Amino acid sequence: MSIIRLRDCPAVPWKNGMGRTRELAIHPAGAGMGDFIWRVSVAEVDSAAPFSSFEGVDRYIALLEGAGFTMTLDDGRSHALTEPFSPFAFPGEAKVTIALQGGSTRDFNLMLRRSKARGELVTWEDPGRQVVDDAVALIYCARGHVDTSDGRLQPGDAWLPTPSTGRVALDRGTLALVARVELLGN
């Protein structure tokens, strides 16, 4: 079965040890922080700790719960991650500091090794059937329910589709975060 329940994923320290994350999926299976091609996780942010650095990695982040935080990147850009489910992309090697807007948050993360993959984090909100093409690496149910060929996703569940999956169905009021990944031929 390719359904992953967030509650079954242990919380582990961030790469820099200053926060916690729950890894939903990593490719290839068994890869570590230095050799993954893509990785999806949910981070728990409860202090103004700086983000871990990931050289050569494109990162996508979306707020799941809480008031969020303001990210300040070392290139001078600032981004308020305060709107739930609205993805923001940034380079993994950027030095990122944060200022919490009020209390703990949870955020969804997609990381892609730039030399080996490209992709994006998108939201699906339209009720009914959604096409699962070959680029869909993972579907995360943020709210509502998603029906897959392997079973029903509840909030906090993720699903790893197979190439022959075809379609999933979203109930009214459902929001899914979708990690789209294209492996590069190197």
Topology:
Layout: E1 3-5, E2 11-13, E3 20-27, E4 38-45, E5 57-65, E6 69-73, E7 78-81, E8 88-91, E9 96-100, E10 105-113, E11 117-124, E12 128-132, E13 136-143, E14 146-148, E15 151-153, E16 157-159, E17 166-170, E18 175-183
Antiparallel strand pairs: 1-16, 2-3, 3-4, 4-10, 5-8, 5-10, 6-7, 6-9, 11-18, 12-17, 13-16, 13-18, 14-15, 14-17
Protein name: HutD family protein
InterPro entries: RmlC-like_jellyroll, RmlC_Cupin_sf, Uncharacterised_HutD/Ves
Pfam family, one: HutD
List keywords for this structure.
single chain; 186 residues; mainly beta; RmlC-like_jellyroll; 18 strands; HutD family protein; RmlC_Cupin_sf; 5-stranded antiparallel β-sheet
Describe this structure in words.
With 186 residues, the chain is mostly beta strands. The chain is built from no helices and 18 strands. The strands form 4 sheets. It has a 6-stranded antiparallel sheet, with no helix packed on it. A 5-stranded antiparallel sheet has the order 1-16-13-18-11, with no helix packed on it. The radius of gyration is 16 Å and the shape is globular. The mean pLDDT is 93.
The CA-CA distance between the termini, in Å, is: 30 Å
Unreliable residue stretches: none
- How would you characterize the largest beta sheet? 6 strands, antiparallel
| Radius of gyration of CA atoms, rounded to a whole number | 16 Å
Taken in chain order, the helices and strands follow as: EEEEEEEEEEEEEEEEEE
- The tally of beta strands, per DSSP, is 18
Estimated helix fraction: under 10%
The number of distinct helices, counting runs of at least 4 residues, comes to 0
Mean pLDDT: 93
General shape:
globular
Tell me the fraction of residues in β-strands, as a range. over 45%
SSE class = mainly beta
- Spatial ordering of strands, largest sheet: 2-3-4-10-5-8
